[in-house]
Amino acid sequence: MRLLVVNPNISDDVTELIRAEAMRSVAPTTGLLVRTAAHGVEYIETRFEALLAAQAVAELIAEHRDVDGVVVAAFGDPGMPALKELVDVPVIGITEAALCAAALQGRRFSIIAISDRITPWYRECVEHFGFGNRLASIRSIKQALRGIGSVQDDFRAPLVELAQRAVADDGADVVILAGAPLAGLARDVMAEIPVPVVDGIGAGIRFAEAVVGLASGPHRAGSFAAPPPKPRRGLGTALESAIAAAQAEGRTA
Questions:
Q1: So what family is this one in (predicted)?
Q2: I want to staple 21 with a disulfide (CB 3.0 to 4.6 A). Which of 172, 184, 206, 211 is the partner?
Q3: pLDDT greater at residue 144 or residue 246
Q4: Can you tell me the distance from the alpha carbon of 233 to that of 27, in angstroms, rounded to the nearest whole number?
Q5: How big is the CA angle at 44 (ends 17 and 233), to the nearest 5 degrees?
Q6: SS3 13
Q7: Angle in degrees, CA 123, 126, 130, rounded to 5
Q8: Which domains occur in the chain, in start order?
Q9: 199 close to 187: Cβ distance less than 8 angstroms
Q10: Cross-strand pairs, 10
Q11: Three-class SS of residue 219?
């Protein structure tokens, strides 16, 4: 099995955090291809920034269609679920994977985020995926970030405290450490948090492996079939080719 893991942010530092946690999480028989968005923003905090990231992710998926599955490695799952329409392999976002992992381990969960600005969008994502009634809280760092690649070092103690408060004050049965900049932190702090702690990257990798292993088949019809044929303009060569291939394979509704 071979998975494409896409960092929708342009930060190479974050990509290395993603790569490290993905390598720790992946099965020995699974190969990883880890890539960084070619354009966009350093880290995604808003709906509009997610919109910008979505095309960058689509372009990378289109360039690497020789994989068995794709992991979109940014919390908020930019471009999801629309990216499922592009290729005939499973495309898994770390948000949905983390929510599913949390739901399997407890009744209510809390999300710990790196930015206060990001929380409204995260709340919408939780509701979009159908987990709104199981969200205990979203707690976030209030201070400005010194650098996106150093969040774990700069805010380790406050992040742990936010998680502990989510359990004690909000009734969380599970805590999700949200966002690729926190990749791998769950392993380091789980002894300090009295409930299961979910890492989005780890969840995304393991769920992608599971869904690929199910071999359920592609979307040939329904709402996730390929977009119907119509005139297009201004798309990159790889993206144009991927859309045309999906349509030629008969995956249009």
A1: Belongs to the HyuE racemase family.
A2: 184
A3: 246
A4: 41
A5: 110
A6: helix
A7: 140
A8: 2-94+205-250 (3.40.50.12500), 106-199 (3.40.50.12500)
A9: yes
A10: none
A11: coil
Q: Which residue has the tokens 């809390």?
A: 110
Distance CA 58, CA 78 (A): 10
The one-letter code for the residue type at 188 is D
- Does the pLDDT at position 250 exceed 80? no
Q: Which two tokens stand for residue 39?
A: 């354009």
**Which tokens sit at 232?**
């297009």
Q: How far is CA 13 from the centre of its chain?
A: 17
Q: What is the pLDDT of residues 155-207, one digit of tens each?
A: 999 999 999 999 999 999 999 999 899 999 999 999 999 999 999 999 999 99
- Give the CA angle between residues 93, 74, 94 to the nearest 5°: 30
Q: Is the pLDDT of residue 251 over 70?
A: no
- Overall residue count recorded for the chain in this entry: 253
